[in-house]
Design goal:
The chain is mainly α. It is 78% helix and 0% strand. α3 packs across α5, α6 packs across α7 and α7 runs antiparallel to α9.
């Protein structure tokens, strides 16, 4: 049982390394110009050996985008659970949701770039799964924003959070030269201002 657990953990670590390398390569070159051989080389294994982990390049892309979406949703749920446990108001909750997304976007710019550009290359089933997770994630923002500003309709709140999410995701354009601290601080401040939060 211990050996199986260690084997599973080792496989999960390896898969994480492969996803990170693939995200960096796809972010730089685009999906169609990226090769499995290059991903394998980046993590020290042959291209064909990648088939032990993923069925092909399309599966690799799907797992990158599904992984991003699940991690964002899980982080959002953790914020909401802490908010409920500690009795935060809607403003604090929304600030924490924004901070969670800013941290992800600034520390994982390659994955954000892949998410923004390559979703159209997913098969329909995987695309539907990613979109469903993205909707679920942004609904957390919408609910918190409407709790803070009950005069907003669901559509109005949806537009605002979609635009703010795009603003945060655009941090990938500057983080490599501006640095993570300056990018995080400015992105968070701008996101708050866009939602009318001081």
């Amino acid at each position: 049982m211990v050996c199986m657990t260690r084997r599973t953990e080792a496989r999960q670590r390896r898969e994480g390394e492969i996803l990170a390398a693939a995200a960096a390569i796809i972010a730089e070159r685009g999906f169609h110009q990226s090769r499995l051989e290059d991903v394998g080389s980046a993590v020290g294994i042959s291209g064909p050996a990648l088939y032990r982990y993923f069925s092909g390049k399309e599966d690799l892309l799907a797992q990158i985008l599904i992984d991003i979406s699940i991690r964002l949703v899980d982080g959002g749920r953790a914020v909401l659970a802490q908010s409920k446990a500690e009795g935060w108001g809607p403003e604090r909750t929304l600030k924490e949701l924004l901070a969670h997304h800013v941290k992800f976007a600034v520390t994982e710019p390659d994955r954000i770039r892949v998410q923004e550009r390559e979703g159209g290359n997913l098969a329909s089933q995987e695309r539907a799964k990613v979109r469903s997770l993205q909707r679920l994630y942004l609904e957390m923002w919408v609910d918190s924003l409407r709790a803070l500003h009950p005069e907003l309709t669901a559509d109005q709140a949806q537009v605002k959070v979609q635009l703010v999410a795009g603003l945060i995701n655009s941090s990938r354009h500057v983080v490599k030269w501006a640095g993570p601290e300056q990018t995080s601080d400015n992105t968070f401040t701008m996101a708050l201002a866009a939602l009318g939060i001081e």
